């Protein structure tokens, strides 16, 4: 392009330094232009185009089949209590189905764009970004052109198979939600009761060693399980029982427990026990800040004030952590006075 035709080129070529000395500036990078267009096999051979179309919709239907397989595998290889092998088989076959479903959609879409969609090179001139009517019309035409050139509206077989594949690909994910609420268990009932009962000793997690009140020093926090939990083996629902009954034990000065906000009759000499299961969506509340007496749930940053009955002071949790009523037995060991008096865990379990 001649300098006179392009103001920018002209300006570059005639630029003068402040000394007034005219300098000829040569453009260091030449525009290489577009390489010669190479036609694809599918552009020149209608039979090849047909083969490509067949391949694409076969891949999309393969994706549908893989999604169905993932759902079937979820039922054919159920997770059985305490069986690690069943967990592995379930994850392997469901995962293979989901992976194949997504892979087939991806390969099909790439093949569609490379072999079937228009292969023309074109230059799109830049223009000002203004929201005028003409711009909107141009956008509309661009969509219409894309529809025409991709064949999305025309090639019903490819389009419908892609839509079917995309819809089917989300079904395995939805199926997995069923595992959150097993049919033979009422979740409200299951979370309303834990292993704690009158006289059950509080024990260290995971050793199962009972805790004396004298061992709980000021400012300390213990992760606690019911002593009887250690007697269960893993095939007897050990993890399920532990997940519900797990407790945090802390000692404050008795006068740091705000009267009226704590059930003082459920504490022992400043020692308090609260469920470790967050009342938001059930993560383990694990971080205790002994200066402020705050418990933090790391999942979504809910904070609970232990000095005020584990009331929520920040975050999405909707209610305080349930308190476990405790006292000591004749030998000085900490024991439960009863089970929790309300369901542990997320608040929505309480809602029928
Ligand atoms: S689970 Fe604890 S804040 Fe969300």
From TrEMBL:
Keyword flag Transcription: no
InterPro entries registered for this protein in UniProt: QcrA_N, Rieske_2Fe-2S, Rieske_2Fe-2S_sf, Rieske_Fe-S_prot, Rieske_Fe-S_prot_C
Major subcellular site: membrane
Membrane topology, record value: Multi-pass membrane protein
Cofactor(s) for this UniProt protein: [2Fe-2S] cluster
A Pfam short name: QcrA_N
Bilayer-crossing regions: 59-77, 92-112, 162-181
Localization in the cell: Cell membrane
PROSITE patterns in the record: RIESKE
Family label: Belongs to the Rieske iron-sulfur protein family.
Protein name: Cytochrome bc1 complex Rieske iron-sulfur subunit
């Amino acid at each position: 392009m001649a300098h006179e035709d392009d103001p920018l080129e002209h300006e570059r070529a005639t630029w003068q330094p402040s000394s007034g000395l005219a300098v000829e500036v040569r453009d260091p990078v030449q525009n290489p232009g577009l390489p010669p267009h190479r036609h694809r096999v599918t552009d020149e051979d209608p039979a090849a185009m047909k083969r490509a179309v067949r391949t694409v919709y076969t891949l999309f239907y393969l994706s549908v089949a893989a999604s169905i397989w993932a759902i079937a595998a979820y039922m054919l290889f159920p997770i059985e209590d305490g069986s690690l092998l069943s967990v592995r088989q379930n994850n392997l076959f469901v995962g293979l189905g989901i992976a194949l479903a997504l892979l087939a959609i991806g390969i099909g879409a790439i093949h569609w764009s490379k072999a079937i969609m228009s292969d023309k090179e074109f230059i799109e001139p830049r223009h000002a970004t203004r929201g005028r009517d003409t711009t909107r019309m141009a956008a509309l035409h661009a969509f219409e052109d894309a529809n025409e050139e991709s064949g999305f509206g025309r090639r019903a077989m490819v389009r419908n198979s892609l839509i079917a594949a995309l819809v089917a690909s989300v079904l395995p994910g939805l199926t997995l939600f069923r595992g959150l609420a097993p049919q033979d268990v009422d979740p409200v009932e299951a979370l309303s009761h834990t292993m704690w009962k009158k006289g059950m000793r509080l024990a260290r997690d995971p050793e199962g060693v009972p805790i004396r009140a004298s061992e709980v020093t000021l400012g300390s926090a213990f992760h606690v399980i019911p002593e009887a939990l250690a007697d269960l083996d893993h095939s007897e629902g050990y993890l399920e029982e532990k997940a519900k009954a797990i407790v945090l034990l802390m000692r404050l000065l008795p006068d740091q427990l705000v009267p009226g906000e704590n059930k003082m009759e459920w504490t022992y000499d400043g020692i308090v026990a609260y469920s470790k299961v967050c009342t938001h969506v059930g993560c383990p509340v694990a971080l205790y800040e002994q200066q402020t007496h705050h418990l933090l749930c790391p999942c979504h940053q809910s904070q609970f004030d232990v000095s005020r009955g584990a009331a929520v002071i920040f975050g999405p949790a909707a209610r305080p952590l349930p308190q476990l009523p405790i006292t000591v037995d004749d030998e000085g060991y900490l024991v439960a006075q009863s089970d929790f008096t309300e369901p542990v865990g997320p608040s929505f379990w309480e809602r029928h």
